[in-house]
Design goal:
This protein is about 30% helix and about 20% strand. By secondary structure, the protein is α/β, with parallel strands linked by helices.
Length: about 325
């Protein structure tokens, strides 16, 4: 999927989010992440569980206070505290679609009330206008107007995720973080929800951070892909380039272990299981975070932390690839 433009909508600069365990130990959930997200692009963010993907998404939106660094929206630095009145200027422009459509909807509210929540916070929203907008958004996400009076338990998982999408979209955001939006759904409905998100992106010119485990799905839906390992970025680039020609040894391992969506091809292929486990993110020291699992580890890797630097991909079909492919590995510099 293409459509990336050069305009930066959102940017993290040296963003850190640590969680304090006790007076000596911190979980380095997000550690010095600098990343740009362009207007009208879908940036896929992949990595194993515990890599910090969701924490990064929530810190971008101010749902977690940051430990250090900054987030810029349209070039303006976001206020540090989400609850501050200053932050509310940005809050409507940035929404989140949650992983679990079962727990993210209030069981005591109807679908219509849930979807209307964002609009009701606006003092100028008249009741009839709210009802009309809810009906419009039920339709946009593939539900019917009478679904608005039903409760969450009356819906399937896929329908609940559609309600969550309508709730996020009704306030007309520019930027949406989709946090593992399909991982709790049956395989049969995952593609429907992905196609709905892709349609909304084109119709409304949305910009998205799409967080997921499934590399094939992320490649399908994303313009660019970023790979996260133990709170830091390992690789960033055009989605097809990263998927078909991974450069970082961790990305290579992720791609090799990724099941092939086509069952016929999958039968003739043996995905390699990921070796080892992601280490503890508590008080991460210097050196490459992947050194303990990397088949290409060198002495230097254990002492010096590799920076995320531009790398040439001579086989890229993306004309901007030379500028956009970045890898954090001593094999490349
Ligand atoms: Fe492997 Fe060294 Fe590259 Fe880290 S820096 S991924 S240990 S080769």
């Amino acid at each position: 999927m293409t459509g990336t433009t050069g305009n930066v909508l959102l940017e993290s600069r040296n963003l850190k989010r640590y969680f304090r365990l006790d007076h000596l130990r911190y979980v380095h959930a997000v550690d010095d992440v600098s990343l740009v997200i362009h207007t009208n692009e879908i940036l896929g963010l992949v990595g194993e569980s515990g890599s910090g993907k969701s924490t990064f998404g929530k810190t971008l939106l101010g749902l977690h206070d940051k430990t250090a660094g900054e987030v810029l929206y349209r070039g303006e630095v976001l206020p540090a505290r989400y609850r501050s009145a200053d932050f509310q200027r940005f809050a409507r422009s940035m929404q989140m679609i949650f992983q679990d459509p079962y727990s993210s909807l209030n069981p005591r509210m109807t679908a219509g009330e849930i979807i209307a929540e964002g609009l009701r916070l606006r003092s100028d929203a008249k009741p009839q206008a709210v009802r009309d907008e809810v009906a419009r958004w039920l339709g946009q996400v593939g539900l019917s107007p009478d679904h608005g009076s039903r409760y969450p338990h009356e819906f399937s998982g896929g329908q609940r995720q559609r309600i969550g999408i309508a709730r996020a979209m009704i306030v007309e955001p520019e930027f949406v973080v989709c946090d593992e939006p399909i991982s709790a759904l049956d395989v049969s409905v995952q593609a429907q929800v992905i196609n709905l998100l892709a349609d909304l992106k084109f119709k409304f010119g949305l910009t998205m951070l799409f967080i997921a485990h499934d590399l094939s799905m992320v490649r399908y839906v994303s313009d660019r892909m970023a790979v996260m390992y133990l709170g830091a970025l390992a690789e960033v680039g055009p989605a097809d380039d990263v998927f078909f020609r991974p450069m970082h040894p961790y990305t290579q391992m992720l791609v090799a272990s990724n099941p092939e969506p086509d069952p016929v091809v999958e039968r003739h292929r043996s995905p390699e299981p990921i070796q080892g486990e992601i280490p503890s993110p508590i008080n991460v020291g210097p050196g490459c975070r992947f050194a303990g699992r990397c088949p290409k580890v060198m002495d230097r890797c254990r002492q010096t932390t590799p920076e995320l630097l531009p790398v040439r991909d001579l086989n890229s079909r993306d004309l901007n690839s030379n500028a956009t492919r970045q890898v954090a590995c001593h094999l490349y510099g």
